[in-house]
Design goal:
Length: 202
Amino acid sequence: MRALLLVDIQNDFIPGGALAVPGGDEIIPVANELQNYFDLVVATQDWHPVNHKSFASNHNGKEIFEVIDLNGMEQVLWPEHCVQGTEGAEFSKMLDMNKIEAIFRKGTESEIDSYSGFYDNGHRKSTGLSNYLKGKNIKELYVAGLAADYCVYYTAKDALAEGFATFMIEDAVRAISQEGFEKAKEDILRKGGKTIKSFSIF
Ligand code: VGL
Ligand code: ZN
């Protein structure tokens, strides 16, 4: 069985949003079409409390995109984004939600960030996604969404470590930085994952 995982296709990651990923809106028609080709479709949702420590606004004198030490881990400081209950945290209205069977929220703890849909950045707590997929006998996981160099990348790495055959759908992701995207792709390939294009699925 194979599943499609749609990562963080939320207003704040789309042009016009607080942490817009360049071209982020362009993946949505692809993500909608892809859903027709899978046994299971699930999504993740970045879902931060307003006091989240990944926000530069919660650190005196710190700038957006500065890197700090947060509880022993490197943390990029982001603009406020995907705050629980706000419009920016909602899924894009262009995204077809009907086939999505479950939504896994992440980044809900103020002291630790959570890029992956599986675990927080310290691998301390699970979201339950891995057991959910295994319970549905999923062996292959196809990943699409935003941002390719952060949440998609960390999700793909954890998927590989959890033993899923993992595919990143290259034209159904967009990155914050191109350089970061190239590094992410190399690392996914090195760890045994694959990158594919949506035409090979359609
Ligand atoms: C993301 C930075 C901060 C993402 C989430 O979805 O890639 N990036 N929070
Ligand atoms: Zn976030």
